Amino acid sequence: MRVVMTGGGGFIGAHLLARMVGAGLDITLVGSTTGKSRYTASLVHAGTVRFLRCADTFDDEDILRPALADADAFVLLGYTMPTALAASRRLSEEFTRNVAPLIRLLRAAEEQPRHVVFASSVSIYGRPRTVPVHETEAPCPETPYAIAKLAAEETVQLLCEAAGSTASILRFATVYGPGETVPRAVPNFIQAALAGQPPVVSGDGSDEHDYVHVCDVVEATLQALRMRADGTYNIGTGVGTSTVDLCRLVLRLAGSDLAPAFRPADVARGPIRTVCATERAAKELGFSARRDLHDGISEEIGWFRSEADMAPYGALATA
What we know:
three-stranded mixed beta sheet; seven-stranded parallel beta sheet; single chain
């Protein structure tokens, strides 16, 4: 199988790339750089994975078309973080940096049917009315990121239908695991605990999320790719964990006797509970998450301890 991939040098992408190379897939990465992953860069340097350097806007179709012409599938994990802070400008950047390039990339490859796997997010549900949340629940995104992810989902579905292609829309729950460095709850809590500082929890810590290990996310993505699954799937564990319980678990596994510190939430609101219903992924993809949160957090703590250049702790966890 010939696969064109975006985001192959990111947190999830590097893990997925390792599995795809091991499975013998023919892979071409496209984008302006190979990303932050040293592993991804080494594969490109060795010639194991091809790399087509192009603008992340994908506005040069003359460069893209030859690389896309014989692709059997696209795996779209790429994401460019907006820089603006104001909601209106951030939303505009989300569409400029992420949705519009997606349209251009798919347009450059619209001559023949193929399969598309798109990495979306459970954030598109906003505050789910039911727990666990099913794929049939009406989306209600509350952030620029979630709005753009929903728009990208609909873009993929529309363009794939027009081209006679199939599409797997994978709505990832909160992904964690070795290699995660973005300032989110799990890495923030771990870095604080290892630095001998109390991890900071926003609000009372009662928000509940579905934490899924990156290796499980990779397995779900490979299943969607292998089966050319045509549909929308929640990719999670079906188990919710509150932010404060997550923090206490990290402290215990890191061997710390500190307690969580709390700060007022930025916005007064009730707790959010986002836990995935996973029956559709189990039935149609044959996927079920296997990594236990206890073991997964222990593994990520070990990864941080092994990193001599661990980034200094500073960001507050907002889960």
